Amino acid sequence: RSARIVENGDTIKRDIQAATSELIRALKAREQQLMTEVDQIFGQTSKTLAAQRDHHQLTQTQLASCLKFVEESLRTGSPQEVLSMKKPVVERVQQMAKEFQPSHFQPEPEEIIHFSHEQLTDACKRFGEAKVVSVCPEKCYATGEGVERAIPGKVATFTVHTVDKDGKTCEDLNAPVTAELLSHGDGAIVKCQVARREGHTYELTYQPQSRGQHDLNVKVYGRPIKNSPFTVAVRKAAPDCQGIHVKSITGLKSPWQLAVTKEGLIVVAEYTAHCITVFDREGHKLRSFGHQGSDQSKLSLPRGVALCSDNSVLVTADHCVKKYSLDGKFLASVGTYGNGQLEFDQPWGIATNNKKVYVCDTRNHRIQVLNEDLTYHSSFGSLGSGRGQLKFPEDIAFDSTGKMFVAEYGNHRIQVFNPEGQFLYQFNKQGHGMDNLCGPFSVYVDSDDFVYVLQWNFSYVSIFDNKGNFIESFSKRGDKAGEFKSLRSIAVDRNGYFYVSDTDNSRIQIFK
């Protein structure tokens, strides 16, 4: 502890030296600025006096010329001529006399220069303060929505609470509380402002501009507070989806899970056609694959589809996982029936994250984690209804922070895990309303971390935030455009279009 005290003292001394050096630099810069201002004032005053001098010299020359003219007229002119010149000459002399005033040689009163430095001297005498404070930055904490999420262009707010080393509230209205928001995307930094101080709390605000993940760094007395930096998701308040039907891709045989590439290609697993079909963004069929070839490359009842970082296609089929290139070339296959490593019992949903492949091993009630080359990595989950346990996990998806969302058909809930499979939280309001969960079958998370849930034998899409708060839903049961039967999968492309597998209607519907 004594070593930490000495180190802290050395740090404070360095801070004092740095602050003093900065003050000296500021004073030097101010000195130069004041000198320049004085030179400019005196330069302007000198120009004014020079102009006055030139004017009076001209007036004096004119007056001398006038007197000379009068003297010459008196000496040589007739009495009548002299009398006729008297009035204009007297008026001209009087006018020049008025213009020639000695007081005009004085500078204007506002041009008098005064230099005041008393406040600066007093401020320097009071510069800085070294004291022992009760606030413990590492125990201070922040609350409020602003430490978790924000909306682009809108003011977000959070509160910093100052406490001592024992965690007790500690009032310190002069505690320097600072914070800044750093974008993971473009690296932009937004400074936070202290809007209000009251007792042991400080209310801070910021206004982010860019969407995506940000780090919120909060410090008290120059040291990070508890849990700083905070991860803040800056996103829209609600999805763009208006539920407006754009078009349908028809003639499919039990379309199951689907995925959309960055280029806008639509990849669909056709369950009863035993193949993968690829469409362009306009809905034109480009190719199908998996229904022909050797026993290893052929598909049987494909369900789940996911894309690797190189756009290769992963497919869950009957007790196995297969891998193809986007143009249909078979690349690899792994898995047989069973409950051991790389053994599966009806695998359904599949997703990729950070070069790992996550497979819902549905009837084994677990998630198997593979590497992108389909070698085994790990697994988690066991049959049950407790936290972290699984019962018929049907689908899986990831948000922008790497959190894993698992749709559990058997437990009527969405469980959220970290990438290592550690339980974080769940949302499981059961029932038959649009904001409830009853046999969730498919889950998808978009780039703004909105969670889309499809439920078995229900005809609508329910949308939640990534904390499980219900936002909205759309559509109804039927076979008309914009209506559904037996939803199986949903995806959203980068342009905001929604793609939904409307299985019993044998089509993919596209919404905006």
Question: Would you kindly provide a brief summary of this structure?
Answer:
By secondary structure, the protein is an alpha+beta fold.
Indicate the structural class: alpha+beta
Quick one: biggest sheet? 6 strands, mixed
Average per-residue pLDDT, rounded, comes to 85
Q: Bin the helical content.
A: 10-25%
Hey, roughly how much beta strand do the residues contain? 35-45%
Helix/strand layout:
Layout: H1 2-76, H2 79-99, H3 118-125, E1 141-143, E2 149-150, E3 156-161, E4 177-183, E5 189-191, E6 193-198, E7 201-206, E8 212-220, E9 223-224, E10 230-234, E11 245-250, E12 255-260, E13 266-270, E14 275-279, E15 285-289, E16 304-307, E17 313-317, E18 320-324, E19 330-334, E20 336-337, E21 343-344, E22 347-353, E23 356-361, E24 366-371, E25 376-380, E26 393-398, E27 404-408, E28 413-417, E29 423-427, E30 440-445, E31 451-455, E32 461-464, E33 470-474, E34 476-477, E35 483-484, E36 487-492, E37 498-502, E38 507-511
Helix pairs in contact: 1-2
Describe this structure in words.
- With about 500 residues, this protein is α+β, with helices and mostly antiparallel strands.
- Helices cover about 20% and strands about 35% of the residues.
- It is built from three helices and 38 strands.
- Strands 2, 4, 5, 8, 9 and 10 form a six-stranded mixed beta sheet that branches. Strands 1-3-7-6 form a four-stranded antiparallel beta sheet, with no helix packed on it.
- α1 (about 1-75) runs antiparallel to α2.
- The chain is elongated, with a radius of gyration of 41 Å.
- The model has no long low-confidence stretch (mean pLDDT about 85).
